[in-house]
């Protein structure tokens, strides 16, 4: 009979905390670079250059219709055939950026398209400067439109990042795998890790909700 | 026989045929998740505070943790319950629970999108809960639900790939096995990705088309 024993898990808890910190770092880095990719691709998609749009559309469709695990295997194991060799950690970052970029592009594009021309014209008619128009009429509403989708995509990214442990990149899940192989307390280790992910995802959504209230608190319409 | 064999047509077909296990696992999780999701959605919109809280907690738990951890917990949890470790059952159970939470949340939105006047009219006509749900609310909610449900199916099919990590031989795991024998990862994982794409892309297109048609039908 298996006896549940959490003692070895808490003995190695500092390893798990380090893993959680690595997961946050990896997710935030992937989010920042992924956002840049998303903005560039969204700009490319709305630019009106047809071949560019086809390439970006193909990228989005391929990424959104294949599993992240296969993407990371392809990047880590497959790309060396093209003499692109990456360490597990950089392959993890690249895979997360590539994955986030595909989803982020659609979110950013929706934000750009949400601003109506009439609003810009109204701004000009009210005598706002170019900078004021950009700041209050373009950026703020566009950010508000994309903010909820973007933040939930970030949390999804953080949860997905656990898969990078499959190529033995360093993160919380990998820290769990290591601790599990040292202590053989598999269930206990994974339940603690799962709760740590839960704390991180609820913590981030709480922070995001506070930011949303502070930054975008003004009446919507009418 | 050489240690490393080339990646040829037989290897290609082995990978393509492994898709049947991906499809089977997705079908089981979708069927189980459909049933579980309906219960969760009904719990989420029920009048009982306890049921609502329970359903909300279930959704939060599964939407706030990685699917990989859910798989690990079911996989190793079976050992604690004294059951033999079986990747097939562990993957099916974990993915069913995962799908229940996500479908429950999607369908809750669809049920709430049915105008409350419909429910009130049904109550006024003397319909009790079961008949009210069965004949009035759910049929209308199901029309709204089709597009996002198909969209989630794509996510679920992709999610089954994680079963490879606990050792269930579906498409991705078969790819790993072939890769160990042929050592041509570029071809192997390219093929695996292509098979997933063939499974998922038509569903994505279908979901988008239905969403578009629905939004056009309901605007005004």
TrEMBL record, chain A:
GO cellular component, one term: ATP-binding cassette (ABC) transporter complex
Biological-process GO terms, alphabetical: amino acid transport
InterPro entries in the cross-refs: AA_ABC_transptr_permease_3TM (IPR010065), ArtM/GltK/GlnP/TcyL/YhdX-like (IPR043429), MetI-like (IPR000515), MetI-like_sf (IPR035906)
GO molecular function: transmembrane transporter activity
Membrane topology: Multi-pass membrane protein
Principal subcellular localisation of the protein: membrane
Keyword check for Ribonucleoprotein: no
PROSITE patterns in UniProt: ABC_TM1
Domain ABC transmembrane type-1 per the UniProt entry, residue ranges: 20-208
Transmembrane intervals: 20-44, 65-84, 145-169, 189-211
Subcellular location: Cell inner membrane; Cell membrane
CDD domains: TM_PBP2
Keywords: Cell membrane, Membrane, Transmembrane, Transmembrane helix, Transport
PANTHER family: ABC TRANSPORTER PERMEASE PROTEIN (PTHR30614:SF35), MEMBRANE COMPONENT OF AMINO ACID ABC TRANSPORTER (PTHR30614)
Family: Belongs to the binding-protein-dependent transport system permease family. HisMQ subfamily.
NCBIfam families: HEQRo_perm_3TM
Protein name according to UniProt: Amino acid ABC transporter permease
Biological source species: Neorhizobium lilium
UniProtKB/TrEMBL annotation, chain B:
Biological-process GO terms, alphabetical: amino acid transport
Keyword terms: Cell membrane, Membrane, Transmembrane, Transmembrane helix, Transport
Pfam families with a match to the protein in the record: BPD_transp_1
Subcellular location: Cell inner membrane; Cell membrane
UniProt GO MF annotations: transmembrane transporter activity
Source domain of life: Bacteria
InterPro entries: AA_ABC_transptr_permease_3TM, ArtM/GltK/GlnP/TcyL/YhdX-like, MetI-like, MetI-like_sf
Bilayer topology: Multi-pass membrane protein
Protein family: Belongs to the binding-protein-dependent transport system permease family. HisMQ subfamily.
UniProt protein name: Amino acid ABC transporter permease
């Amino acid at each position: 009979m298996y006896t549940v024993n959490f003692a070895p898990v808490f003995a190695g808890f500092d390893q798990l905390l380090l893993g959680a910190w690595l997961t946050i770092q990896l997710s935030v880095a992937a989010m920042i670079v992924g956002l840049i990719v998303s903005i560039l691709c969204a700009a490319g998609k709305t630019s009106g250059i047809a071949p560019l749009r086809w390439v970006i559309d193909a990228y989005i469709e391929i990424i959104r219709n294949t599993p992240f695990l296969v993407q990371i295997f392809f990047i880590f194991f497959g790309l060396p055939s093209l003499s692109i060799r990456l360490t597990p950690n950089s392959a993890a970052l690249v895979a997360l950026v590539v994955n986030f970029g595909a989803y982020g592009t659609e979110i950013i594009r929706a934000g750009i398209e949400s601003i109506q021309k009439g609003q810009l014209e109204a701004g000009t008619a009210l005598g706002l400067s170019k900078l004021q128009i950009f700041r209050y009429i373009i950026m703020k509403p566009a950010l508000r439109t994309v903010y909820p989708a973007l933040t939930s995509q970030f949390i999804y990214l953080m949860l997905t990042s656990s898969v990078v442990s499959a190529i033995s990149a360093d993160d919380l899940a990998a820290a769990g795998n290591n601790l599990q192989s040292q202590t053989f307390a598999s269930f206990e280790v994974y339940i603690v890790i799962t709760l740590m992910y839960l704390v991180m995802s609820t913590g981030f959504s709480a922070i995001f909700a506070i930011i949303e209230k502070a930054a975008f608190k003004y009446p919507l319409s009418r | 026989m050489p240690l490393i064999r080339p990646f040829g047509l037989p290897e290609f077909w082995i990978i393509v045929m492994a898709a049947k296990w991906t499809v089977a696992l997705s079908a089981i999780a979708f069927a189980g998740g459909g049933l579980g999701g309906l219960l969760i959605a009904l719990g989420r919109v029920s009048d009982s505070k306890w049921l609502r809280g329970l359903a909300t907690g279930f959704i939060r738990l599964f939407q706030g943790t990685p699917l990989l951890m859910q798989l690990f917990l079911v996989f190793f949890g079976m050992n604690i319950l004294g059951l033999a470790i079986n990747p097939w059952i562990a993957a099916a159970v974990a993915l069913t629970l995962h799908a229940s939470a996500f479908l429950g949340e999607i369908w809750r939105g669809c049920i709430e999108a049915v105008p409350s006047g419909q429910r009130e009219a049904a109550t006024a006509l003397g319909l009790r809960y079961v008949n009210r749900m069965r004949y009035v609310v759910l049929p209308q909610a199901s029309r709204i639900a089709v597009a996002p449900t198909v969209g989630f199916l794509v996510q679920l099919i992709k999610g089954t790939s994680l079963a490879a990590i606990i050792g269930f031989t579906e498409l991705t795991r078969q790819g790993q096995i072939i890769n160990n024998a042929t050592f041509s990862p570029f071809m192997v994982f390219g093929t695996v990705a292509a098979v997933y794409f063939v499974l998922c892309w038509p569903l994505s297109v279908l979901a988008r088309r239905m969403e578009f048609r629905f939004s056009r039908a309901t605007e005004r």
